[in-house]
Amino acid sequence: MSGDKFISIEGITRRFPAPGGGTTTVFEDLWLSMQRGDFTCIIGHSGCGKTTVLNILAGLDAPSEGTVIVDNQAIEGPSLDRAVIFQSHALLPWRSVMGNVAYAVASKWRSWGRADVERQSQRFIDLVGLSGAEHKRPAELSGGMKQRVGIARALSIEPKIMLMDEPFSALDALTRGTLQDEVRRICLETGQTVFMITHDVDEAIYLADRVVLMTNGPDAVFAEIVENPLPKERKRADFHKHSLYYGVRNHIIDFLVSRSRGFAGEIEAGGFDRRRVPVVRPGAPEPVIAADRPARTPSWPGLSRQSTPLPDEPRRGSPAPTGHGGRRKMREG
Amino acid sequence: MTRSLAVRALFVSLVIFAVFIAIWHVATMGGGFDVPIDPEYAKLVGTKSGMPGPLDVWWKIWEHLKNPFYDRGSNDKGIGIQLAYSIARVTTGYFLAVLVAIPIGFLIGMSPIMSRALDPFIQVLKPISPLAWMPLALYTIKDSHLSSIFVIFICSLWPMLINTAFGVASVRREWLNVARTLEVGVFRRAFTIILPAAAPTILTGMRISIGIAWLVIVAAEMLVGGTGIGYFVWNEWNNLSITNVITAILVIGIVGMILDQLLARATRLVTFPE
């Protein structure tokens, strides 16, 4: 049963004591499982309890009911297997970049000598592109660089899972883009399992394999799991031009704008099973031409010929340019 | 005129100083609005005025600086020796207080139960004037020297204790969460996260404490007598040597400033930019 469930959230509920006595239920009876190597994003409005879910996964908070199983073991408090990247980067300001990463490394491998700790730290400082800034204090770094240190610190302990709480929300758009690229590259290279909170729909589509949609709190639920239909080898430059991109994006935005508020109605309508959160795979927004059409037919009327002939297939009926043919002859001879 | 702020401020300071000295000099020249002097007293001390002028004080300071460490019996010791006694008492009492206040402050800051449990004691003990402990100390310790150290200890304790507890309790949640996710043990957490994070607040408490300790030592030594700069002041008052009293006042101020600046330096060392 647990073969493909690396992380399994099983019926967790979190209640807080309310100011006027009684309790407030942030969420109740949540179920979700994730596979090893999955990049899962969770998206929902502020205050719906996303951070509480992440804190429970991190072991920083405990559910009032239910349990979370990671790698066949119930979570009982924080663990070095689960690294957290905090929204506010949470660097120790009195330590240098190296000191911050080395603190994590030395916490994981307590018997290591100074040289080993520094070698491991250096590897991850280099990985996030901070070589040369090792001796700077956090106060001397820009926001993006601080978050890079946070990422290096989380990766350096080689965790089973990375938990990210809106890691890029405090950054400017340009830095955010660069860091998303880096995180994606590193996660693909290392096969890291990631659970990330975000507010940014494009960020979720670019990074995640699966996007979990959460309804508004209190009494929030996981409404849907959106499987990302975009190919795994997507590039920042063109992923938004993919034919399925708008389908996913519109689906998520529809949810955030209207459905997240009235989801209780959908639950009452019946058929919603908290234990089996529906998985959807949004298609293209409109009917599309099948992808296996002949390779060189014009894409639309007017585009009757390609601007440059393909080198291995010279245009029929036209003589090959002399220079081109000449070279070819020489090569043959 | 683009002189730096420091130079201009120094200039104003020097002007204020010169004006003050000039007024003091004129006021003590005799006549004017000086207190009428008893001729008997004038015969005894041999001045025109009861109040010494700046020049008298200057020569007195010069005399003390030339030979600060002489010892001609219990009532006639050099000002350097008296200062050394006071500084030794202050540092002993102060460091004993550091040893007690910082661990207890950590305990209060880290444990909400201890914080609540010890709060009433601290609230009651803190406003007690340290000198009120003196009779109790003299009665139980039976030694005036140790009693004044105890008084310094008790007066230095509270600011350090309260600041340490406050600094420890207000360490940023996220730094503690970093330690928790890294499975850092209680002692390592105390030394590698809480201590550096709370150090600026703790040092501020220590700076307040050294200031109070230096205020209290003068009063304590006046009370118990024997040695120390406080005793020196009272002894010179009994000798009716206002010149010596003024000299001592100046010296107390300068030593207090040096102690304060030492702690300010230390605070700067542990302060981290955010």
Low-confidence stretches of chain A: 287-295, 297-333
Largest sheet of chain B: none
Distance N to C terminus of chain B: 37 Å
Note the main sheet of chain A: 7 strands, mixed
Number of helices of chain A: 9
SSE class of chain B? mainly alpha
Multimeric organization: heterodimer
How many helices of chain B? The count is 11
Largest interface comes to:
A-B, 24 and 18 residues
Helix and strand string of chain B, N-terminal first?
HHHHHHHHHHH
Low-pLDDT sequence parts of chain B: none
Please provide the count of β strands of chain A. Answer: 11
Strand-residue proportion of chain B: under 5%
DSSP summary, beta strand count of chain B: 0
Specify Rg of chain A, calculated over alpha carbons. 25 Å
N-C termini distance of chain A: 66 Å
Order of strands across the biggest sheet of chain A?
6-7-8-3-9-10-11
What is the mean pLDDT of chain A? 81
Helix content of chain A: 25-40%
Provide a descriptive summary of the structure in words.
- The complex is a heterodimer of chains A (333) and B (274).
- With 333 residues, chain A is α/β, with parallel strands linked by helices.
- Chain A is built from nine helices and eleven strands.
- Chain A has a seven-stranded mixed β-sheet, sandwiched between helices. Chain A has a four-stranded antiparallel β-sheet with strand order 2-1-4-5, with helices on one face.
- The longest helix of chain A has 18 residues.
- Chain B contains eleven helices and no strands.
- The model of chain B has no long low-confidence stretch (mean pLDDT 90).
- Chain B has 274 residues and is mostly helical.
- Chain B is 77% helix and 0% strand.
- Chains A and B meet through strand 6 and helix 2 of A and helix 8 and helix 9 of B.
